Amino acid sequence: MKRIDKVYNCLKELCNKQFAERGEIIGVSAMEIAHALNIQRTNASSDLNTLFREGKVIKVEGKPVLYKVKELDMVSDESDMVVKDVFDSIIGANLSLKNAVQQAKAAIIYPPNGLHTLLLGETGTGKSMFAEVMYSFAKEIGRIKRNAPFVTFNCADYANNPQLLMSQLFGVKKGAYTGADKDRMGLVEKADGGILFLDEVHRLPPEGQEMLFYLIDKGLYRRLGESETQHKANVLIICATTENIESTLLRTFIRRIPMVIKLPALAERTYEERFELIKNFFREEAAIINTDIMITSNALKALLLYECPNNIGQLKSDIKLSIAKAYLGYMMKRDKGVCVHTEDLPEYVRRGLFRYKESKDEIDKFITGDIIKFSADNATPVIQQNNQIFNFYEALEEKRKALEQKGLNESDIKLIMSIDIETYLKKYLLNLDKNNLEELYKIVDKKIVDIVNDFLNYASKKLKRPFSEKTLYGLSMHVASSVERILSGKDIVNHQLENIKKVYEKEFEVANALRERVQKEFNIKVPDDEVGFVTMFLCLDEETKEKDERVGIIVAMHGEAAATSIAEVSNRLLGDNYVIGYNMPLDQKPEVALNNLTNIVKRVDKGRGVLLLVDMGSLVLFGDMIYERTGIPVKTIEMVSTPMVLEAARKAILNASLDEVYDAVVNFSPYVGRIYKDSVKFEDSLKKNVIITACITGEGTAVKLKSILEKNLDLKEKDIHVIPIEIENKREFRRKLLNIKEEKNILAVVSAINPQDDSILYISTSDVFDNDKLSVLKNKIEALSQIEIIDNMKEVIRENIKIDSEKYISSFKRFYATLIREGVNLNEDITIGLILHLACVIERILQGKQLIHIKDTQEYIKNYPKEFDIIKKAIRIIEEGCSVKISDEECVNMMKIIYSL
């Protein structure tokens, strides 16, 4: 080989090494080349300049002069000669996939033939696609020929048959086994000069992994049945697995795969990337059906937020299914165009709407209108705004009908409709311009504006709070459209009416005054549903009003100086003594710390609440306890760092609300966000019997309470689920409970706020560690399991005993509940025995048969008067329910069964 060729190859190798180690190519000096090849520096410099004149290398002027191989410099991110490559087509290449892309490029260009690579990632993260892009990149930079093969092999197909696996990979020699009538090429031979992609490599048995060792080490292999002949193959191997490689692959195999690339799950990627993926999939489908595809804002929110365990693959599949449903509606002429509505999404996708509140600010970046349209040839989605802002009755009416026609259940309909209404009104009030009244008169009858203005003055006196100009403008436009609707004979339906009446009782009563005035002025009948909408305006005004006070920031940590140190540093950087630090000595009792922090919160609160950043232990639960004592909203974050405290104080100084400060800090720290967002799965927790843990301090405290209850009450074994929810005020709390009660049986509420509902057992946050207080809940849970046993006996009674099983079991449950209230202890065996015995007694009474007499009846009554009296009173429920008269002798029999006398 000529010296100049050796210099070029050496430069190429050193550039490759730089890129693999640094992700960029800086350049190599003539001295480095001379040292590597053991030649004179002047000779190396002369050859490098010749290569520069031939256009094969790039010269970087400086001291010393550096040289780069031209073809490699094209893939160096930091070079002035950078050009776009195939990796740039991957969504997220410069975001969550940036590191993976750099690793992949390094693996392909590493001399002499690239590095064998292992791709890690969950199902659906795009490992196969990523391997194909690596193949395209290898062709693009000339590492392999343009016609080089890309061969895919799924190891799961032959996982349990090593011989067949070997024949597939390496080929077969004629006569190797019965039926092998000719030589057959294997996949390794087919992949020669290119890339062999081994998918699901964790399914490759140890024998199969060992078969690859020799190929990886030597580039040689034998076909099945050959003992002497060896074949040569230049193959770059890319493997992929979803499993933990330490437990599924041989260490000797792992050592032979030097490049390991981890592809992130969809949940770990940014909302921006997820939106780009959704946009891309919609455009692909638009091209397939050759028409534009639209999607409602709520449906897009759900796609952006739902938990997608099978990642990008599932996201694409769910989008295809949803578009197929929308296309069917279009073909059947139910819709004017192909538009994906929330009801077109699978149920588990719709659940993503539950998470909208916690990610609202991030999600709203991509949703600026009611309908988003995607076209196959559009570079960006087209946003369509709904100009009829407050004339929305027709839209709600049509939506309700559409949801019913699609077969959605009532709870899903209520969820979708409530999100439409509340989000709509809040967004409008927050963004409404403060025009003067003359401008308002141009679009709304002056008579209506005057009526609304008078009403708001009246409401302000009754509710003892002022109303903003935004409410006057918005409510005036709303009343104008509702009057027009009623006059045209159309219905008004408010899907939150019952909840509004219960939760906002006082505001609903005040809103009736506007109804009476409108009815009188326009000679129309205004329904309760419309009064409900007016009530929402009165309540939403309070929620959207701006205040001047700032959120207080407190740092509380264990130790002698940790909290005050962070607070001091933060205050110095801010130039303001805004952050308060509280040090909790390790030997300080929690009650003392709680009292001290309660006093600090009282002092710090200026009307907008307090953010409490804590490190661990009992401090995590203090927020709700402080609220219980003071009524001051306190949100808690279980994590403290100086940057987090600075972010909290910065947002607070800018007059952000407590929710905004809390969300900013949670989003600032991915670790905190991951804890809370992944832990709180409201929609997955809704089951038949539930316990609610609610807090105003942030979802983290509610999750802590959930863990404590599950451990202390052994709830998982009893199939009772705990739902942790975040609340802002008593009204919102009551509304959420009412929604849950419609679908589920709430056994208890653990919260700093008493729901004021006699049908729900209430346990204060501070009583969670009190065994006596929890014993009431334990007894209720035990009784609940017995009720299920009683219900299961209904079929047994119906098939074997000639009485009305429905009436009997219904009566027995009330009889059982009475005994429990009297403190009678009934285990499963006693309960079943009692059900059967009493059923047989009733059957004999109804058939006129003689009952079994027992001796010493009066003696038992005399010796156990209290026990007999309890049963005698309780048995009246059975007598009334089943129309029978049960004797004292039978009561004594039951007393013997219950008390084991």
UniProtKB/TrEMBL annotation:
<dbReference type="GO" id="GO:0016020">
    <property type="term" value="C:membrane"/>
</dbReference>
<feature type="domain" description="Sigma-54 factor interaction">
    <location>
        <begin position="90"/>
        <end position="324"/>
    </location>
</feature>
<dbReference type="InterPro" id="IPR002078">
    <property type="entry name" value="Sigma_54_int"/>
</dbReference>
<dbReference type="GO" id="GO:0016301">
    <property type="term" value="F:kinase activity"/>
</dbReference>
<dbReference type="InterPro" id="IPR033887">
    <property type="entry name" value="PTS_IIA_man"/>
</dbReference>
<dbReference type="InterPro" id="IPR036634">
    <property type="entry name" value="PRD_sf"/>
</dbReference>
<dbReference type="InterPro" id="IPR003593">
    <property type="entry name" value="AAA+_ATPase"/>
</dbReference>
<dbReference type="GO" id="GO:0009401">
    <property type="term" value="P:phosphoenolpyruvate-dependent sugar phosphotransferase system"/>
</dbReference>
<dbReference type="InterPro" id="IPR027417">
    <property type="entry name" value="P-loop_NTPase"/>
</dbReference>
<dbReference type="GO" id="GO:0006355">
    <property type="term" value="P:regulation of DNA-templated transcription"/>
</dbReference>
<feature type="domain" description="PRD">
    <location>
        <begin position="796"/>
        <end position="901"/>
    </location>
</feature>
<dbReference type="InterPro" id="IPR011608">
    <property type="entry name" value="PRD"/>
</dbReference>
<dbReference type="Pfam" id="PF00158">
    <property type="entry name" value="Sigma54_activat"/>
</dbReference>
<feature type="domain" description="PRD">
    <location>
        <begin position="443"/>
        <end position="548"/>
    </location>
</feature>
<dbReference type="InterPro" id="IPR025943">
    <property type="entry name" value="Sigma_54_int_dom_ATP-bd_2"/>
</dbReference>
<feature type="domain" description="PTS EIIA type-4">
    <location>
        <begin position="550"/>
        <end position="680"/>
    </location>
</feature>
<protein>
    <submittedName>
        <fullName>Transcriptional antiterminator</fullName>
    </submittedName>
</protein>
<dbReference type="InterPro" id="IPR036662">
    <property type="entry name" value="PTS_EIIA_man-typ_sf"/>
</dbReference>
<keyword id="KW-0547">Nucleotide-binding</keyword>
<dbReference type="GO" id="GO:0005524">
    <property type="term" value="F:ATP binding"/>
</dbReference>
<dbReference type="GO" id="GO:0003677">
    <property type="term" value="F:DNA binding"/>
</dbReference>
<dbReference type="InterPro" id="IPR004701">
    <property type="entry name" value="PTS_EIIA_man-typ"/>
</dbReference>
<dbReference type="InterPro" id="IPR036390">
    <property type="entry name" value="WH_DNA-bd_sf"/>
</dbReference>
<keyword id="KW-0808">Transferase</keyword>
<dbReference type="Pfam" id="PF00874">
    <property type="entry name" value="PRD"/>
</dbReference>
<keyword id="KW-0238">DNA-binding</keyword>
<dbReference type="Pfam" id="PF03610">
    <property type="entry name" value="EIIA-man"/>
</dbReference>
<keyword id="KW-0067">ATP-binding</keyword>
<keyword id="KW-0418">Kinase</keyword>
